[in-house]
Please model this.
Amino acid sequence: MQDVGSRTTSVTQVLIATLLVVTTLAVADGIFAPIAFALFILALVWPIQVRLQKSLPRVVALIITFLVVAAVVLALALLTAWSFSQVARWLIADASRLQQAYESLRLWLEERGIVLAVLWSDNFGMSWILRITQTLGGRLNSTFSFWLVALVYVLLGLLEVEDFGNRLKSLRNAAVGTMFLQGAKLTAAKIRRYMVIRTAMSVITGLLVWGFAKLVGLPLAEQWGFIAFALNYIPFIGPLVATLLPTLLALAQFDTWGGVIALFVGLNLIQSIVGSYVEPRVAGSALSMSPVLVLFSVFLWGYLWGIFGAFIGVPISIAVITICSQHPSSKWVSDLFGLQAPEKE
Model:
């Protein structure tokens, strides 16, 4: 009875601690989200600085690494803002045609006994489109301060990585220091591999979407291709949005429902082939994770930290279960969610 009571107490304490941590992360997202994103970037770019330091002074290597990070972030931010702004302008300009397409669809469904107006009449229309556009514009503007804080943390992190590693090695409890150091190395390696695979699949998806949009005559083909590339970094949710947005605008562009349906089917085929067939074969089992965990990670961190949380939700889960795999008492976490056993570098 005492064993059962102690186990119940332990589970309760773990649940309470988990809820407190999640609440803290949600309330203080302005502090923790940039730090998490900076750690994510550090995991990707640290090997660049290490290689540069072999032939250059440490300060010079750090400056070059930081400038590379800043240049890539700026380029991606500008291209993303440009793509979404072009789509938003086109959407506002054709809002009346979208409203007509919606009314046509509503009447067609009502003739078959499906009353769509009851569900959407108060939500869909010119005001709905403008509201969504303004929300997206506000989110894009708010990212500037986020990136600025994250880049400051990246710069500080590049200065501290080696010293932090040395402090871990010098801990009194050498086993704990070794566990965290090895876990950090394995986590960084897995995140880099994940991003290489995800980037390759995103490039393929973006090129296919661009080519398909050109083929069917959909406006803004270049923008749709880049949007598909960017959103593909967010599993499940990103490809869905990248499919629905051009389909929505196709309602105002194509004269027949057949063209709209063909576009929707074609975009879904591209996403399905790349995401469900090509990517698993390229990734193999090196990054195998439970699909439930992947989806949960996107929703959880997206809920806590918005679009940035959804973007790094999977890398955060990779980090957590890789660290857990380093100790026998927590190894069940990595076994349960399908991450491979730790690899030796």
In short: DSSP finds twelve helices and no strands in the chain. The mean pLDDT is 79. The CA atoms of residues 28 and 213 lie 41 Å apart.
